[in-house]
Design a protein that fits this description.
alpha+beta; Immunoglobulin-like; Neutral Protease, domain 2; eight-stranded mixed β-sheet; five-stranded mixed β-sheet; 33 helices; metallopeptidase activity; transcription; chromatin binding; RNA polymerase II general transcription initiation factor activity; transcription cis-regulatory region binding
Length: 1204
Amino acid sequence: MKKEKTGDNSRPFKLAHQILSLTGISFQRKSIIGFVELTIIPLRDTLRLIKLNAKQCRIYRVCLNDTYEAPFQYFDPFLDICQGDNKQRSLEFFSTMHLAAAQKVDPDNNSGELVVQIPPDAAHLVAENRGLRISIEFSLEQPQGGVHFVVPNCEGTLAERGAHMYTYSYENSSRLWFPCVDSFAEPCTWKLEFTVDDSMTAVSCGDLVEVVYTPDMRRKTFHYVLNTPACAPNIALAVGPFEIFVDPYMHEVTHFCLPQLLSSLKVSAKYMHEAFEFYEETLSNRYPYSCYKQVFVDEIDEDINAYATMSILNTNLLHSTAIIDQVYITKKAMAQAIAEQFFGCFISMQNWSDTWLPKGISTYLTGLYAKKCFGNNEYREWIQSELQEVVKYEEQFGGIILDPSQAPAPLPIAANTPAPAPRAPDPGFYFPIKNLHTMSPKYIEVLRKKAHLIMRMLEHRIGQELLLQVFNKQLSLAANAAQQKIESGLWSHMLISTNVFAKAIFTVTGKDMSVFIDQWVRTGGHAKFSLSFIFNRKRNTVELEIRQDTTHQRGIRKYVGPLVVNIQELDGTFKHTLQIEGTMARADITCHSKSRRNKKKKIPLCTGEEVDMDLSAMDDSPVLWIRLDPEMTIMRAVQIEQPDYQWQYQLRHERDVTAQLEAIEALQHHPTPPTRLALTDTIENEHCYYKVRLRAAHCLTKVGNAMVATWSGPPAMLAIFRKLFGSASCRRIIKQNNFSNFQHYFLQKTIPVAMAGLRNAHGICPQEVLAFLMDLFKYNDNSKNRYSDNYYRAALIEALGATVTPVISVQQGTAITAESLSIDTKAILEEVTRNLNLEKLLPCYKYTVSVACLKVIRILQKFGHLPSNPHLFRAYAAYGQFIDVRIAALEALVDFTRVDGKWEDLEFLLDMAEMDPHPGVRHRLVRLMVENPPFERAHKHRLDKPDLVDRIWNLINGMLSHDAKLRCDLVDLYYTLYGTKVPFCLPIPEIVAITKPKKAGPPTPEREVKAAPVQYVKHESIEEVESLPVSNKRKASPNRDPPGPSNPGVEHGPELKRQKQDERGIPVPAEGKVKSEYYSDNSASLPGIMGTPPGPVGFEPGMFKKESEEHKPKSDSSNKSKKKKKDKKKHKHKHKHKHDHKHNKDKEKKEKDKNKDKEKDKDKEKEKGKDKDSSALKIKDETLSSASSSQSPEPTATNEFLFP
């Protein structure tokens, strides 16, 4: 087999072996001292430069063969991507520079951040095919990416507190914690040594050979050896006081979890051995390594991270026997991690562009296991939802090209015409798709889904058995290569690429799949079909018309090839394959049956069973329904036009869940009594797949609302719910909870939420529905249920939120107080606050009830029932709260910022996105801002300011060199707000005057510059330092060093916070009045959290007091003008906004008089002169704002938040 020119062989050397030794792992200082030794084999005698990857590392010395000290240079282009170009602010320019920066250090381009020179006196060491050892001493001080330390701030030793650390990587980013060749295409053998405290355990890749204590017996060194070649991105480490559980079914499998979570671990991993057995049987190949370890850690970004012989998983995947909903997620996640051991870790990829193969194959294998575990219905519904997600993303942003490294072959043309050179299609994305470190994280997420679907398409083209044989062949070749030495040159068999994969398919099946690869792998987009038909009674034929008239739209392309159409007739299902050539295809299909509306006869379905149908709704056509590409063998979106009765037949009688879900989707647009009946029957049908029944319930809500004028009887689904769950003696009273029937459990959770969406003729929720929901709370009894009802209670609270409708009228100038609330709203609010407070005493699994309560409070604010106030959500978003609660609070804050937000609200979010200690929260927050941006692009808005452009630009340009994922998230946000061109808020003449983007300093957390002392005026408004609650057990450890010495004239500490709060008119509790936290004896701590962090409390006596002037309704116009003046006053005194104020003045001048050019020039010169003076003030402001990560007093009761 001819070797491809890839990253694997573009380097002038091969990596044979690597030693990684970390001796000083300090939890207090969050630092690491280490040593690596790479054994390389030069491929030519002239080798003089060795390029390696290293980020954040402080390199002390580099030695060759332990004898010669080698000079080295370090360069990280991500510290200043645009290379000091301060004129540009467009993503078009940034994308070009972003890709250039990534390629400058791409190991597959023989590049790297660390360039080691071979000195002349050591040149004799370099000889072809002779080993050369390069040893590097390095340290990491408070790394900001790649390594995460979790140190709970409570009493006790590190081990008692559950302190732990682990490495995490976004694609290939092992360079963040040790110098290496950070390529997927450079496998080698490994020796790993980690010295840790006596109470800690170090878990890493390979076999644990020995554990050696230091002479003082206070520390111990774990020695691991990995003899199967693996690449650097697949190496990981976790250190902590782990509890160890050896799998009782497979002794080579070991599980590690944090203290006190062993019982949950045993439940969660109970059936994991089945996944191993399934994969080994399916692939006809043994698990490729000698052991497998899975470690559960806290505060990790992704649920699963797979590495050679080990996986690092999120501790929130663990669950007890009482939990239902989490089981499906956890089982699938663990199965995915094991599948990635085969494809992803053992078999890696030849180039970054081959990432679709390990991602696609491992997810495909996980899908096969999920089908075995959860059934075919679950599997098909999952495939359908993945397809819909890919279609949605491609239509929004453009077609995903799985392998952009090579252009597809040109289409066949006439014999006498010369073939044009293949040219890669321009996908038109706002980010480069030619490097993993420049792609949007959302793009990579959807790419995995598409790769999985393409793998499934291949299964349909060549058959599952042959596809599994192809996988088996790759694994067998790799297993053989892994046994050989590097000299054999066979290690390349452990790498997979698009071309290698296509050749393997040809070898196994004899089928040439190059056209398929060109069509679906090297080209982006999907097909979109519109099908309509009429029945020709005279000829007894169906005249089909299939159109592709949207091929010019983004993400959609023309499909040419076979297309399957299934027609369900009275005499059975008939499959027809049509050949699609152009954008319009017509076909006349002869029917096999004659119409017989009045004759009763059993009708055969595609499954072979025969059913009775009521055919009275039919016309003369014998066609019951039509389906297009029922097996989802093409990347496509489908629209079928058929009458409502045919959709009703399809819902009632088609056995394929995807068809039933399509029918439900279509029936939303046909609100008729027969539709209502079909949906009601589906919800009640015990033989129907539960997700179809849930979807039917939500559809019935929409149908009921559309039919509100003609609806008779009780509200939709009320009778069904009472029939299923009402007690025999009194239907109003609900039975005690019994969730042993999982179908009924999911129905019991969903029907109340669906009913809450019902509206009467006045557009408000019927009183009967609200009374029904209140009864559910009143009679909820879980005392005899073996399963937890936390998800059920959360669903009931969600249902309360869904009943809320906007306030009908608010009197001019009246404040929102408790007395002004309607009876219904007061009842909802009391129920929500009661549950929120109860969670403090008896926290439930994952705080699901708190999450639901926060969502409802935001709905009440949004619809005008509560004053719109961010402070409750800020308290719940603080570090120390459980992750799901924080995300729910942040979601509310993002929404608040969009609807009512001021500049400081947006700054609060950006500060958190930049500095929050939890990497997962930083990422999720920016994704929330992308999905719900603070303002619409190109619409004038108070938050659309040059300051925001500068803030985001400086982050993506240089301040996130250590976090490619967050950088690309922020690129997505920049695109959402400004598109690819220069932002509109930057006036064209003043672009030149924009301050130079900050260059990030050395890779240490000390980013503040100590400013010259600045004298502050007493009355001025200093940047807001928000008072956030932080757990008394787990305080947010500040991300940066504390600010430097400050001027005595500047007010610090509580006075500063209080002064700011008093200015905004928010009451500040006296020290003695701060509430202390109470715990019940049986309150259980959540996985990974060392204690229940305090949050704001709920309903309290005296909470309904008069509203302060500041929070009067918006409709008061006089108030508005007062506010504006107040804001203007504040604005003048804010140092940070001095420039903005100038810009705005200049804009006004331009509008008034366009001819005064001279005056404008003078203004500009003045500004330039002032830039230097004001920079000191800006720096001081930043230093003050960094104090917000320190501990602040716990907030008082919810009355302070709900009715300030």
